[in-house]
Amino acid sequence: MEGLGAMSPAERYAAAADNFTRLVGGVSDWDGPSPVKEWTAREVVGHLVTWVPGMIGGGPGLEFPSGEGALADPVAAWRALDERLREVLADEELAVTVHSNPHTGQAPVAQVIDGYVTPDLVFHGWDLARASGQDPELDEDYIAGAYAGMTGMADMIRGSGQFGVQQDVPADASVVEKFFAFIGRDPRWTP
């Protein structure tokens, strides 16, 4: 995955989602562990397909699949959510609809997807790739940008409870390793 930063929000989502779909298709052991200590590969996908509808859903035209059944069939649950997100981004009226959420404020739906869903696909794509022995195909510039932005908000991020304890990395760690260590993953984790 290359050049995410230069893409439009819809293109960036599509590229991240295509890669995530590739990773979902490559999982052979859905009950295998992931770098997120509490989650299996199945639960990585389950997380995405349940929180996204809760965050973005609501309002005229913004109905999403519930994510129910994600643990039973993560592939189908992911495909249903991905299809719906693509429909929303392709609909010019829905994409600019102002979405309001007590945690994220007010912003056009396309901006919310770009700021929350797309990064989560990239970051949890790494989790799924590690859990299933696949290449995550990360855009290092995108990861470097996320790392720079998130380290500036470290106190808020840590206080949210959404990220694990920062992990130690050697001085010569890559920006990708530093980023995943920052969000609480052991960047050299293997199953």
UniProtKB/TrEMBL annotation:
Pfam families assigned to the protein according to its UniProt record, in alphabetical order: MDMPI_N (PF11716)
Domain Mycothiol-dependent maleylpyruvate isomerase metal-binding intervals: 14-51
Molecular-function GO term, any one: metal ion binding
Name of the protein described by the UniProt record: Mycothiol-dependent maleylpyruvate isomerase metal-binding domain-containing protein
SUPFAM superfamilies assigned to the protein according to its UniProt record, in alphabetical order: DinB/YfiT-like putative metalloenzymes
Highest taxon above the source species: Bacteria
Species whose genome carries this gene: Phycicoccus elongatus Lp2
